[in-house]
Each structure stands twice: as C-alpha cells, then as structure tokens.
Amino acid sequence: MIYREAGDFKTSYRDDGQTFPIRLDRWGYYALLGVAFLVVPFVIDSYWANAVLVPFLIYAIAAIGLNILTGYAGQVSLGTGGFMAVGAYSVYKLMTAFPGVPIFVHILLAGAITAVVGMLFGLPSLRIKGFYLAVATLAAQFFLVWLFNKVPWFYNYSASGQINAPERTVFGWAVTGPATSAPAKYLTCLVFAVVLAWIARNLTRGMVGRKWMAIRDMDIAAEIIGVNPLTAKLSAFAVSSFFVGIAGALLFSVYLGAAEASEAFGINKSFLVLFMIIIGGLGSIFGSFAGAAFLVLLPVLLKNLLVVRLGWPTDLAAHLELMIVGGLIIFFLIVEPHGLARLWRLTKEKLRLWPFPH
Amino acid sequence: MEFLYASEVLVNGLMAGVMYSLVALGFVLIYKASGVFNYAQGVMALFAAMTLVGIMEGRVPFAHLINAAFGVHVDRFGWTVPAIFGIALTALIMVGLAIAVEKLVLKHLVGQEPIILFMATIGLAWFLEGLGDVMWGADVKVLDVGLPQGISDSIETATNNWLGYGFFIDRLDIWATVIAAALVAALVGFSQYTKQGRAMRAVADDHQAALSVGISLRFIWIMVWSIAGFVALVAGIMWGTKSGVQFSLSLIALKALPVLMLGGFTSIPGAIVGGLIIGMGEKLFEYFIGPMVGGATENWFAYVLALLFLVFRPQGLFGERIIERV
Amino acid sequence: MKLKLATVALGAILAAAPAMADLVVPNLSYRTGPYGANGTQYADGFNDYFTLLNERDGGIGGEKIQTPECETAYNTEKGVECYEATKGSGALVYNPLSTGITYQLIPKVSADKIVLYTPGYGRTSAKNGSVFEWVFNAPANYWDGASVAVKYLLDQSGGDLKGKKVALVYHNSAYGKEPIRTLQDLSKKHGFTLTELPIDPPGQEQKSQWLQIRRDKPDYVLMWGWGVMNQTAIQEAANIRFPMENFIGVWWSGSEVDVLPVGAAAHGYKSLTFNGVGTDYPVYADMKKFVIEPGKASQGGQFVGSALYSRGMYAAVVIAEAIKKAQELAGTPAINATQLRDGFEALGITPARLTEIGLPDFGPEIKMSCDNHGGSGMARIQQWDANAKKWSLITEFTEPDQEVLNPLIAADSEAFAKEFNITPRC
C-alpha cells in the first residue's frame, strides 16, 4: 500500500543508481541514522552498551570486512581473529608510544597496519583456493596469536602478557579506559560502523567491487577479461583486513579495555565472524549487520529468557542455548541458504506488492 | 646421543601423527562421498566418547534436565556395561545420528554451495555439543575400555640393550597405530571389494552419474556418515583414554585440519601420510627450534608446514588435481 | 503492530535483572566450555555455603544473601556481559574465577566502586591495596604460590637447591605466565636452573614437552595448568615415569578431576593449596542437615568436599566474614559495596574464628589492611592418594619469601598506577 515506488520518478542516472532507490527505504534509513545518533545516546545505559550495542557494532564492522573478502571476492578466510589481534596490539602499541596523538588516528593506523599484514597472508591465495585456502588462513590465525603471546615487546613487557587500554579522550570525553561512559563507547563505535559501512557500500558497487565479484564468480574467466587476480585478490585482503583491524582495535580499546591474545582473539572469533556473514548473507552489507545482530543478540536473549525469566540452572541453559543456536543455524540455512539479507529482500518484494498479490 | 634423542622425538611424532590421522579420516570419508566439509567431526568424536562412557557407567541420559524439570534425583541406573557392548551400542547410536543428519539436514540442502553445507555442519557441531552435555553432563569422564597406557617396557629394555638408550614409546600410541592400520585396511577393503563400497566410490566420482545407474544417494550418505561416526568413535576412544572425556576433546578437529590440507581432502592414504608428516614435523620443530623461540609452537607450525606444502601442490599431496575450465 | 510487540518483548527480555533488596553476591561461574568441569565444582561450593548461611542463620546479620548465577564459559566477553547484567542489582562483590575476566574487571570495578575478590588467581600485584583499591586476592596469589613451592623444594633437598634443575610446565596464557618472573628471581637467589615449557591451551598434546623433560631429567617439575592440560600433564609424567612426588602443581592443578582420569599412576602427585579438602569438618554436619538433605544443594551436591568445591566454599567463607565485619563497622546489616571494601580491609580471620564456624585449620590466618589486600600469602602442600582417592595435607601453612616478592609487587603495581594515573591511597 504505502511501500512502493509508484510516483517515485528518477530524472538522472545518479538517482537511479543510489543505494536506496525507494523513497520509503531512504526515509527509513535516515530515520534509523537519526535515532541511532540523536536518541539512543541519551537513553543508553551501560548494560545495553556493553552487552548488546557496542559488541554488535564492532562485530558488524568485522563482518563487513570479512564479507568483502569472502562474500564479494570469494576468498574464504578463517584468520579473522588473528587480524583482529593485529589491530588490537597495533592500537595498544600506538596508544602507549604516542599518547599525544588522537585516538581516532591510532585506530585508523591500526587498521592500516592490519591491512599490510593481511596482504602478506593473502599472498598464498594466488595459488591456493577454496577450503584449502580457508585452512591455510588458519596458519595466520595461529601464528599471529602465538606471536603476540610470545614476544614481550608487543605487550610492553607486562608480567602476564595482558594489555590494558589507558584512558584517551576525544573533545574531553573519555572514549577508552575505565571512566568511559556508555554513550561515548556507543558513539565511537557507531561513527566507525556508519562510515565504514558507507565506504564498503561504495567500494563494492564501484570498479573495485566489480573486479572482486568477477574473481569470486570465476577467477580464470575474470583473468581472461582483463582483471588482474594479483591486485584484485590482494586489494580484497587489504581492504578486508583494514576493516577487521579497526574492529579489533575497537574491541580492545573501547569495548574490553584489557585483552589477551589467545583468549580474546582465538580461533572462536574467526568462526564467529564467519557465521555472522553466512547467516546474514554473503555479499551484502545489510547482511553483515543482520548476522552480527543475530549472533550477538540471540545468546543474550536466550540466556535472559532461560535463566532470568524461567529460572533454569545456568549450565543447562547454556547447553540448551548451544543446541538452540546450532539448530537455528541449520534451520535458517534450510529455509534460506542465502541468509537474512535474502529474507529481508523477499519480505520487501512481498511488501511492494501488498495487498495485491500480482 | 643427540641423534638418539632426535629419533625418539621423531618416532613419537609419527605416533602422535597417527592420532591426528584418526580424526582426519572421518573428514576425508564424508568429503569424498558428499563434498561436505564436516566441521562437526571433532564434536562427533566427543559425543561418541561421552555416549560410550555414559552407557558403560549406566548413567541416566538427560539426568540433569529430568532433575531440573521434575525435581527428582536420578543419576545412575546402577549397572555397568562391558566395553564391547558399550562400543556396539554407541556405534548403533552413531548410525542413528547419521540417519537423523541425513533426514533433517542434508536432504534439505542438496545442491547448495559447499560453504553453506560447511556452515550447516557448524550448526550441527553446536547442536551436538549442547546435546552431549545435556545428555551426559559436562564433567570430566574417565574412559577405560582396557587399552594400556604408559611407557612400553619391552621396547625400552630392547633399545637400551641394543643402542644404549631406552626409547620411550607409549603403549597407547602403539595400540592407536595398530587400530588405525586395521581401520584403514578395513575401509580400503570395504570400498574396493563390496557392492556398497563401490557404490560409495561411484558417488564420490560423480553424483549424477551414480544416480543415473540407480545408486541411492541418500543411502550412501547415511552409510558414509555412519562410517564417519564409527571413525569418530574410535578417535574418541583413543583421545578419551589419553586425557579423559571432556569438552576439549572436540577441539582435536583443529589438529586434523592441517593433516587434511597436507594430505588432500579426498584421499584416505593422504590422511595417514599427512598425519605422519604433521606429527613428525611439529614435534621435531618444537623439540629443536621451540626452545629458541619460546616454545608452544606446535599449533601454528602444523599449519605453516601444511601451507608450505600447499604452495607447491595446491590440492595437497594426494588430492585430486584441480582442473579449471572457463 | 506485530513488530512493535516483538520489539517490546525483546526489550523486556534483554533488560537486566531488576534490583534486589537482599545482599547480592553474583556468582560469575562457568559450567560449560573447556574449563566447565572445574568451574562447576567451585561454583557449587560457593553457592552451598551461602545457602547454608541463609537456611541456618537467616543470612548474615539478618540479611539474606542472594547469589544470582551467570554463566561466563571462561570467556571474557561473556564475563563482561554477566558483570553488566548483574551490577545493576546492587552487587557487592565479584569472584569470576578467571584471570582473564579479572583483568577485564579491574578497571571496571574501580570505576563502578564494587569489590573484586580473587582468591588465588587474578592479578598478583593487586595485593598492593594502595593502588588496587577495590581488588582483594587474599589468602595467596601466584607469586606466593611459586615461592611456597620453591620453599618446599628447598626443604625436600636439605635446604639447598644449588645446581638443581627445575622445570615449569605452564598454561600459555596470562595465568600461566604469572609465576615466571618470580621463579626467575628465586632461581637466581637459590642457584637452581629454571626451564620454562609453555603448553598451548587446551593442552591435550604435550608429548614433545615431556620428551624434553625426559631428556633433561629435571629434579623437580612445577606446573601452572588448568582444565584438560592438568590431566594430560600428569598422565604424560606418569608415562615417562617421572617421580610423582617431585611433581608439584599450583592449587588450580590439584583437584580430583585432574588426577582421577590418570588412575593409579597419579599416586603421590602433589599440589599447593590454601584450603582444606574433604568432608571431615564440623561444618559439614550443618551442611548436610540444612542444605544437602533438604535438596537445596547446588546442582544436587555431587561434588561436596572435593578440592575445588572446598575452594569455592572458602571464597564464600571469606566474603561472608568480610560482610559480617562490614556490618559491624557500618552499624547496619544492609551494607553497600564501599562499606564491604572497608569490611575487607579490616578483615582478620584467626584460627579461632575458623574453628568457630566449623572449619578448623581450613585456611591460613588472614589479616588485611588498607595497603595489604593479599593477606599473608601462606599455602601448604597436599598429596594425592590414588588408592583412597583423596587428597591429604602433608605440610603446615608456609610463608612465602616476602623479601623477593615485595619488590616485584611494588614494581608491578607502580607501573599500573603510572599507566592509569592512580595516586596511592595509603
């Protein structure tokens, strides 16, 4: 009825190619941004920030990063945890070495460092493909975590190898360290998430993104029509790692405040982010957000439902939670193998036709 | 003397490799027959071992859930089951699991991309992990099916008399080697000389061609998952005897991945050879280079070693050659 | 409309638990994941002691104690979620049983002004109360443990460790790395050589490390392990016939789950401990009457008296005593976290008091103050008897070598104070 493009005329190619061609979508998007920036910061408390929204935003950034590599360029990676560790340890070293430089610069630099490391570990992708590549990226995962655990320089020679984020401020507001308020944490992550999602969206629909997709669909064919696999694959690794590195830097400095390589950036993290993009939808920015929301919210939701509302023993609830999440993953894959993003698209299609089915 | 130490590490590495191969075998079987990279193989080993202990000790399944839901106190039936029956019963349960997986998961995902199938097995892994804990509890369970453990005295004495240095060989490792050899022989025999085995190979070669000559794909899948379940049971028994049956058992899958990479996802001999190379390589590296760089290198070195091999042979040592056409 | 309803329901379910009136001591436990088997027993002991106080005495000073449980799975992010979910309910003190989560929570509790009690784990230099205002780690920390272990080794080898070889097998994480610096200093002081052998968690494959031990033949092996690493190490030690009486684990490597899977071969294995084990204490008569028999024991009470259960109970005892002290000081039974901190700082648990609560000689004497949040650091050695399947205490409580430890603690806490701009309080 309301949701349709009738009467929504485009007079230029620019209008026609925009991300949200339907007016209602566009309004919805602006409204969402408005609420996220102008309303949420005033009502958020530290539970919502720390347990729900901040991890959601950070994982969404990581998921966008991995989606660029896996969903757009077709290179399956299980090294996400290791690359997040690079981001975290880079930002830690930068923060402690140059306390005067603004923290946002450090976080961006950490992303850049991760991009370089990612390109290095992306080199084997020129020869190794498919699941072999996925397992090969595990080499990066295990090696990087071991490195950060073993070389004392990375953790400033502290006794136990833990790194702690010192306090840094932006315009007088603490954004890292223990005194950080919930809105500050949330807004920092939100700014990065929105800007990076915007960059990712525009990269993927431009020439670079088309090259990545050509490589994904068939790399030999892509090579024949003139896409250089070396630059395409390595640029995918670099951009992806840049995103993942920023996610790691935020995870450590803003969210956790203290971290240890083997615990915070272990292999589970790699799998978690991969689950997010598969459940959300490969090759979709919206899917990255949806997948992150699903896997961050669902466990919290189930836990609160089973333990707090129903009063079940915590271990039983945790085991059932595993079963339910596992079962739901299978269920979603059976119902819609292309993830939540496709489900969303189908819903929108239906809405456009509603209430007349034809 | 240094040479003797090195050979001791080498032999032990080879035997550790056999333990990895046991896990890797299950992956290969399923990948070969259905193209599914079954991440749940490690959890299947844990689940099988838990079930075995549960049956042998006469635990009440879902005891904790029953207690929480009905406010009663049930724990054990009060009987114990001999190992051999326990293993047979567990094998049956693994067949049941295979049927359930085929009926509830694989059937609905025919023809999907490999990564979707991979993802489904991760969902399955989570589900099984939770199910195992709900069924049998999350405590550390002692598994004793009568396998010996500890240093083999006869080998130590023999090598001491012969070389002047008593070699350390774990009796459990010797058993693992014997069992793995028997398992591979049985698998090869099965796939070469029985009708079902040939059908399995036909499916592995070409799904559609196999279907067109009247082979039931679904039956083959159930069969392959059952066999993989049995392999998981064997791996679970060996690893469970070594360090108790508990959550960490499911993580042995991570030890099998480099083996798979190196040997190739589609080759049973590859899983064995890959296991031997990985076991030997990581132990020697840890022994000689480890102390210089701070130790604990085994986890990543296995992967880096496999990666080096892959750069020269992208399909693994024994994998089928990848032929790409536009 | 549907969406709206769903959003409201979602919000209701996601929202944290409402505030409670009683004294709230959240139990951030882990009963699942790689260390679930260990965490379960600890959490049970922790819960049961507070249940006992509630059932028998009607709480502490008339105030009931609530121990809302939250599952962390030994995962730092879940730990943070649990902390945020429970802190709004008026939480007084946290005891997460994880060094990783402790590091996470130290800055947070300092900002939120809530007590963090980490008996025998966590950040060692938190002993320095003038820097770590809200963190307590009495009765002993890892460096105390390392020193007590070395003292015991000194005892065993006739007061001289010169030229002896000691190997440290450790969990390759923040927790496992804690004792290294202390042991290095002690090795300089006593003239023994120290070999460090890290084991990557989870630690099911330790063959190369134990082959190194077999080759180097160290006189003693110390272990800082947790979870499956413990069983595997003890099994491998038995496999290479390393004499079990020369193999000493830290207190986290000394529970039933670590030795039982190894069977008879584990006989004689030793570990540190700072609490008693077994059910031969008078308190268990009450425990049986008020908690176990009425069916109120945590998770059915199947681990009552085990080493980790006893340690969980010991943590609960110390917290309960601190609450009592805080109530005395504040003059009101309904205390807040700041008053509880004062209670902790004024806490003194004497042997007489332990006897009074039915746990004679269960733990070391504790005397805390503003600058000493770590107590005396005393620990003792227990030994496993594989035939009787129980631990027996074989030494008295031993003091650590404070001469070596104090400078280390001062250095580490000063570094922390500098990093976080903390001016020492006292």
Report what the structure shows.
The complex is a heterotrimer of chains A (358), B (326) and C (426). Chain A has 358 residues and is mostly helical. Chain A has a domain at 44-266. Chain A contains 15 helices and four strands. In chain A, strand 2 (168-170) and strand 3 form a beta hairpin. The longest helix of chain A is centred in the last third of the chain and has 28 residues, at 229-256. Chain A is globular and about 70 Å long. Chain B has helices at residues 2-34, 41-56, 63-70, 83-104, 114-136, 153-163, 171-193, 195-205, 207-212, 217-243, 252-263, 268-288, 290-293, 298-312. In chain B, helix 2 crosses helix 4 and helix 11 (252-263) crosses helix 12. Chain C has 426 residues and is α/β, with parallel strands linked by helices. Chain C folds into two domains: 20-140 and 282-377 and 408-419, Response regulator (Rossmann fold), CATH 3.40.50; 142-273, Rossmann fold (3-Layer(aba) Sandwich), CATH 3.40.50.2300. Helix content of chain C is 43%, strand content 13%. In chain C, helix 9 (228-239) links the parallel strand 10 and strand 11 (247-249). Chain A: One of its GO terms (molecular function) is branched-chain amino acid transmembrane transporter activity.
Oligomer: heterotrimer
Structural class of chain A: mainly alpha
* Structure class of chain B: mainly alpha
| Count of separate structural domains of chain B | 1
Radius of gyration of chain B: 21 Å
Shape of chain B: globular
Helix content of chain A: over 70%
Specify the biggest β-sheet of chain B: none
- Helix count of chain A equals 15
The interface involving the most residues is between: A-B, 47 and 54 residues
Quick one: biggest sheet of chain A?
Answer: 2 strands, antiparallel
Q: Total helix count of chain B?
A: 14
Q: Report the uncertain regions of chain B.
A: none
InterPro entries (chain A): ABC_transp_permease, LivM-like
Transmembrane segments (chain A): 27-44, 50-69, 76-95, 101-123, 130-148, 236-259, 271-296, 316-335
Keywords (chain A): Cell membrane, Membrane, Transmembrane, Transmembrane helix
GO molecular function, one term (chain A): branched-chain amino acid transmembrane transporter activity
